[in-house]
Design goal:
Among the domains are: 70 residues, no CATH class; 75 residues, no CATH class. Helices cover 48% and strands 19% of the residues. It contains 11 helices and 10 strands. The strands form 3 sheets. A 5-stranded mixed beta sheet has the order 6-5-4-7-8, with helices on both faces. The two termini are 36 Å apart.
Length: 309
């Protein structure tokens, strides 16, 4: 039987049998489900609302809501891509109702290898995630992160020989917050100027000049940042210029792991790519506000799944 397309009817493709002239539409359940799943994908990552999908699909809003609720009760099957020299971006982001998403994203191929929906960034969970990634054949070359203590501890336990790149932008951002826009002290003004150059370092030569300027700053202001004040009411001492001291302490502690990207151009120097990904995800979740906590978790899983396709 030879069949040709013959226009549409109520938004559905119509066909004609050239032998007998009968007109019919394809009512295959498989095709129907596939078409419905396409509208679901548009809702998840296409920023289309239920009224918009109802108008485009021909389904009533009630039917669309029922279909989407059905798909949200299912969990997409996630796959891990075993690969060599994976340069991970690892970070967590928080949603309302104490919901935390921890993401393990392959920066080279822009692929989410693993995720965890939990209530915080916990050592035991991240340790287990890293162990599972290694068991599944993912060979980790580097991990770029913001320096969360639990994650650093998990990396040291599971991936002892992996290069850990501290996010340059995160270090810079925290120092700027503590030093404020207009530091009152000379030491604060000079340190803020040094911090502002961090993201511009792209070569060993620039790194050398920057480290020399940081050491010089410390030698000139060592007495200032070690200065203490005494509170006669409590009988205790504290550092007088604690914000300047805190900023320098963060840089000094992160310094051994801040410039691995200069030795290997595959290593991302910041988690900005992940921050951008989180921003887009949250804007989609906000667009469909009103979801229950379980449906919101399912929405996030489907979003990650479709973004990997």
């Amino acid at each position: 039987m030879k069949v040709i397309k013959w226009g549409t009817q109520q938004g559905k493709q119509r066909f004609k049998c050239q032998a007998c002239g009968i007109l019919f539409t394809n009512s295959s359940i498989t095709t129907k489900r596939t078409n419905q799943k396409i509208w679901f994908e548009h809702w998840i990552i296409g920023r289309q609302t239920i009224p918009q999908i109802s108008k485009s699909s021909g389904y009533s809003e009630r039917t669309v809501k029922r279909l989407f609720s059905f798909y949200l009760t299912q969990t997409p099957i996630f796959t891990v891509k075993p690969s060599e020299k994976v340069n991970f971006l690892i970070d967590g982001t928080y949603f309302s109702n104490n919901l935390c998403l921890v993401l393990y994203r392959d920066n080279t191929i822009k692929f989410t290898q693993l995720y965890r929906l939990t209530d915080g960034e916990w050592y035991e969970e991240m340790k287990e995630d890293l162990e599972n990634l290694l068991k599944l054949g993912v060979q980790i070359e580097s991990i770029t992160c913001d320096g969360h203590k639990a994650l650093l501890k998990a990396i040291r336990k599971v991936c002892k020989h992996v290069a850990v790149q501290r996010c340059i932008v995160h270090v810079q951002r925290m120092c700027r917050i503590w030093l404020t826009m207009n530091p009152k002290s000379k030491a604060g003004i000079e340190l803020r100027s040094i911090v502002n150059q961090l993201h511009k370092i792209e070569s060993k030569e620039q790194w050398g000049y920057w480290v020399v300027s940081l050491i010089s700053w410390y030698e000139n202001h060592k007495v200032f940042i070690d200065e203490k004040s005494y509170n006669p009411d409590t009988g205790r001492y504290w550092y007088t210029h604690k914000m300047v001291r805190r900023s320098f302490a963060v840089i000094r502690k992160a310094l051994p792991d801040m410039f691995h990207y200069l030795d290997n151009d595959r290593i991302p120097k910041s988690t900005n790519g992940l921050e951008s990904f989180f921003g887009h995800l949250k804007s989609h979740v906000t667009l469909h506000r009103g979801l229950s906590k379980e449906h919101r978790k399912s929405f996030i899983k489907w979003y990650l799944y479709y973004k990997n396709q």
